[in-house]
Amino acid sequence: MNLVFELFSRVALLGVAQAGGNAFYMPPQASTSAQNVDRIFDFILWVSIFFFVLIVVLMVLFIVKYRMRDPNAEGPRIYHNTPLEITWTAIPLGLVVVIFWLGFKGYMDLAVPPANAYQIQVTGQQWKWLFTYPNGYVDEILHVPSDRPVELLMTSSDVIHAMYIPAFRAKMDVMPGRYTKVWFSATEPGSYPLFCAEYCGSKHAAMITEVQVHPAGEFEPWLEGVANWIATMAPEAAGEKLYGMLGCQQCHSTSGAAGIGPTFAGLFGKERTFRDGGTRVADENYIRQSVLEPASQVVAGFEPVMPTFQGRIKDDGIAALIAYLKSLNPPQP
Ligand code: CUA
User: Is residue 235 within 6 Å of ligand 1 at its C-beta?
Assistant: First the structure.
């Protein structure tokens, strides 16, 4: 049953596989573990096909050979056949032991990352992926070096997701409130699909991004280059990107609709009333304080649930966010 299901999902994956290479049967093998995973899959598949054919053929033969000819005929009585019993116990047992051994060894290889693995943090959220690099850079596309083991340390900021890169044969649940790990070593530079493999809400199907495998020696220069990405963009555009990267959009709309937090539309320059009755105009300093110490000024009608972004955003990022918030105000008449 599992196998049938797996076959169907393989077929369903063909479309995705096409996007990552020209494989008809399987996605391209682009990691060091892909070959091993496929070998075990093929082994189980061919064992299943062999026994399926054997059983169906024997069944048809026996139906014909032992069909009822004379309703009163009495056949020979068969009590026991020890060699037959041993044979049909020993062969499946041997096969199951082999499958267990291959599967267990393969699982252990996939479960234990090498000690020198390069670590990237992954956050799943409805409905996108965020990848955080050791230097603090955050991207919505996963960039990895080739020919070097990469370990993903993953968590979710809302519901259960699952990180799946078919070309690497890497797949792992991403849970809220705890960390899960998966590792791989990419072998072929290029771009491969990465998507969510756990139903997580209405836009689950849109939770797709890609993995960019950089050729050896090109990953570090790339990472250094993007670390200063805010300086390379217009402030409003950089602010809008941060708004998505930091997950602001989960609570603060830009449409005017109230969410878990106040909307950002038309916020800048307006007077705010706080839960304790105090008021303040939403100027640059107000926004800075709201990002770094959100609990110090909670707007009336909302709960003090916003986390601080101290340490997650620097001055240039705050300036970009302020520019973005200003751009969300409707033009003055
Ligand atoms: Cu995230 Cu499905």
Answer: no
Give distance in angstroms: CA of 3 to centre of ligand 1.
23
Taking the C-alpha atoms of residue 157 and residue 178, their distance in angstroms, rounded to an integer, is: 10
Q: Whose CA is nearest to atom 1 of ligand 1?
A: 161
Could you report the per-residue pLDDT of 128-137, keeping only the tens digit for each? 899 998 887 8
The alpha carbon of residue 265 and the mean position of all alpha carbons in its chain are separated, in whole angstroms, by 31
Q: Identity (one letter) of the amino acid at 97?
A: V
Q: Where are the extended beta strands (E) located within the chain?
A: 118-125, 128-132, 138-139, 142-145, 149-156, 161-165, 170-174, 180-185, 190-196, 208-214, 271-273, 279-281
CA 89, CA 97: separation in Å to the nearest integer?
12
Our answer on whether the CB atom of 124 is closer than 6 Å to any ligand 1 atom is yes
Separation of 145 CA from ligand 1 center, angstroms? 25
H helices present in 77-208, as ranges? 82-111
66: β partners: none
* Residue 12, pLDDT score: 52
Distance in angstroms (rounded) separating the CA atoms of residues 188 and 13: 20
What is the CA(157)–ligand 1 centre distance, in A? 12
Distance 158 CA to ligand 1 centre (A): 10
Phi, psi dihedrals of residue 144, rounded to the nearest 5°: -135, 150
Ligand 1 center from residue 143 Cα (angstroms):
20
Ligand 1 neighbourhood includes 181 CB (under 6 angstroms) = no
Whether 207 is in the pocket of ligand 1, judged by its Cβ within 6 Å, is: yes
The reported pLDDT for the residue numbered 4 is 55
Rounded Cα distance, 250 and 252, in Å = 6
pLDDT tens sequence across 1-47: 455 555 555 545 544 444 444 557 888 888 888 888 889 999 999 99
Low-confidence ranges of the chain (pLDDT < 50): 1, 11, 14-21
